[in-house]
Amino acid sequence: MRKWVLSGILASEETYLSHLEALLIPMKPLRAAATTSQPMLTIQQIETIFFKVPELHEIHKDFYDALLPRVQDWSHQQCVGDLFQKLNLKVKSTKDCKDQSAKNSLETLLYKPVDRVTRSTLVLHDLLKHTPPSHPDHPLLQDALRISQNFLSSINEEITPRRQSMTVKKGENRQLLRDRFMVELVEGSRKLRHVFLFTDLLLCTKLKKQAAGKGQQYDCKWYIPLADLTFQTIEDCESTPIPLVQDEEIDAMKIKISQIKNEIQREKRTTKGPKVIERLRKKLSEQESLLLLMSPNMAFRVANRNGKGFTFLISSDYERAEWREIIREQQKKCDFSLTSLELQMLTNSCVKLQTVHTIPMTMNKEDDESPGLYGFLNVIVHSASGLKQSLNLYCSLEVDSFGYFVNKAKTRVYRDSTEPNWNEEFEIELEGSQTLRLLCYEKCCNKTKQNKEDGEITDKIMAKGQIKLDPQTLQNKDWQRTVIAMNGIEVKLSMKFASREFSLKRMPSRKQSGVFGVKINVVTKRERSKVPLIVRQCVEEIERRGMEEVGIYRVSGVATDIQALKAAFDSNNKDVSVMMREMDVNAIAGTLKLYFRELPEPLFTDELYPNFAGGIALSDSVAKESCMLNLLLSLPEPNLVTFLFLLDHLKRVAENESINKMSLHNLATVFGPTLLRPSEKDSKISNSSQPISMNDSWSLEVMAQVQVLLYFLQLESIPTPDSKRQSLLFSTEV
Question: Which residues form the Rho-GAP domain (predicted)?
Answer without folding.
Answer: 518-711
